[in-house]
Amino acid sequence: MRVDLTLQAACEAEDLPAQVDFERWVAAALQGRRARAEITLRIVGEAESRSLNRIWRGRDRATNVLSFGAGPAEDLPPPLRGAALGDLVLCAPLVRREAREQGKEPAAHWAHLVVHGTLHLLGYDHAEPESAEAMEALETGILVRLGFADPYRLRSAGMP
Fold first, then answer.
1. Going by C-beta distance under 8 Å and a sequence separation of 6 or more, which residues neighbour residue 112?
2. Which of 15, 24, 112, 136 is the most buried (most CB within 10 A)?
3. DSSP E strands: which ranges in the chain?
């Protein structure tokens, strides 16, 4: 597994995970699904997150993670396929706030959102109940293998 991760910190963010952690989380999500990937992971503040969410999703609020795929490389013949998978944008203040509100360790929430976003780049979706269940199960398995708790167990225990 080869992950070429470009990390951009576009805001003041305390206690960010190390690049090696982000790379490990991306690699775990890609394991068995892709041998190589190039991803840019941008850490932003609420204003940039809100602007991107408004422009690309029509939602005028900051969001924890956005995924921007590089395009349909799988539709190209193998010699023309590149490693570029896409871009992830994570909103640092929102990630910290959600972790606190959900009673999660910050690293566990960062890992969850990186895995979640990477799966979106691979084409996974949670728009329908069946696809949401499948994606959540996949995320949970990846995170448990990384040593984190099931990120959805708090929700089933009555937490948001």
1. 104, 139, 143, 148, 151
2. 112
3. 2-9, 36-44, 65-69, 84-91
0.85 exceeded by pTM? yes
Choose among 103, 117, 34, 135: nearest CA to 69.
117
DSSP state of 27: H
Give every CB contact of residue 130 below 8 A, 6+ residues apart in sequence: none
Cβ(65)–Cβ(88) under 8 Å?
Answer: yes
> How does 57-75 read in b/e, with b if 16+ C-beta sit within 10 Å?
eeeeebbbbbbbebeebee
pLDDT digits (tens, 9 = 90+) for 63-82: 999 999 987 656 655 555 66
84-91 and 65-69 as β-strands: parallel, antiparallel, unpaired?
Answer: antiparallel
For residue 159, is it left (φ>0), alpha (ψ between -120 and 50) or beta? beta
